[in-house]
Write a structure and sequence with these properties.
This protein has one domain (4-95). It has a 3-stranded antiparallel beta sheet with strand order 1-2-3, with helices on one face. It has one helix at residues 60-95, and strands at residues 11-17, 35-46, 49-55. It is α+β, with helices and mostly antiparallel strands and 96 residues long. Helix content is 38%, strand content 27%. Bound molecules: zinc ion (ZN). Zinc ion (ZN) is lined by residues 18-19, 21, 24, 26-27, 35. Zinc ion binds at residues 18-19, 21, 24, 26-27, 35.
Length: 96
């Protein structure tokens, strides 16, 4: 079982950003590519809503680990639930 105190749902994506400061050579119209890439944690809130949280470059590895831990935990819960489902069916059969 992964450490539940650090699990995080969502996925990491990267994006270039524009600072909109006049004269910035990175953001020049048609030429500059913007700043970055910066990492963004994208979390689905259901019903097509998504929350995007910028992630500073430093703890990116930690975030990745937390995402992995979440996926791992989901897998473990799914497997346990499947076993429970089988046991549930078995109990039902015996009651009849
Ligand atoms: Zn800029």
């Amino acid at each position: 079982m992964p450490d539940l105190s650090s699990v995080l749902p969502g996925s990491l994506l990267s994006r270039m950003v524009r600072c909109n400061k006049p004269g910035c050579r990175f953001c020049e119209k048609g030429k500059g590519k913007g700043h970055g890439p910066i990492w963004i944690l994208s979390v689905s809130l259901g019903s097509r809503q998504v929350r995007q949280i910028p992630v500073p470059s430093e703890p990116k590895k930690e975030v990745e680990e937390s995402l992995r831990a979440f996926a791992l935990m989901q897998n473990v819960v799914k497997q346990i639930a499947q076993v429970n489902q089988e046991l549930f069916k078995e109990r039902k059969r015996q009651q009849q």
